[in-house]
Design goal:
Number of domains: 1
Number of strands: 5
Order of helices and strands: HEEHEHEHE
Strand content: 15-25%
Number of helices: 4
Distance between the termini: 62 Å
Shape: globular
Strand order of the largest sheet: 3-2-1-4-5
Oligomer: single chain
Length: 126
């Protein structure tokens, strides 16, 4: 009887803890270093350009994950703040897919300068 209670408790605890894990990592809590670098995405909403900076992984990010309010950076200044927390020498890969796109060249140059100034390696996958 005691073993059954222990097993039931262990299973319940495992189920509860597995629900705490999330594959979505808000930009505010990005690690300073990522083994797989970082992924940068951009898209236009109205007249504004938004960004998302996510830790690199082996899996493709979903559009919902990229554009979620937890990950969306409202402008270049917010992107700059997020990049401030990334260690120099880290690689940032900027890509677009589906409804995601690259902003005008002046904004791209601004992001390039931010990365260069912070010692980050920016790869733009056009």
């Amino acid at each position: 009887m005691r073993t059954k209670r222990f097993l039931s408790f262990a299973i319940l605890l495992g189920v509860l803890l597995s629900g705490c894990r999330s594959d979505v990592q808000p930009a505010a809590t990005l690690p300073a270093e990522s083994m797989k670098g970082y992924e940068l995405y951009s898209w236009q909403e109205g007249s504004r350009w938004k960004f998302s900076l996510l830790a690199g992984t082996n899996r493709e990010k979903t559009l919902d994950e990229i554009t979620s309010t937890n990950n969306a950076l409202e402008d270049v200044d917010m992107l700059r703040s997020a990049l401030d927390g990334v260690s120099p020498g880290q690689t940032i890969t900027w890509s677009a897919k589906g409804s995601l796109s690259f902003p005008p060249d002046d904004i791209v140059r601004q992001v390039e300068q931010i990365c260069k100034g912070q010692g980050l390696i920016l790869n733009i996958a056009r």
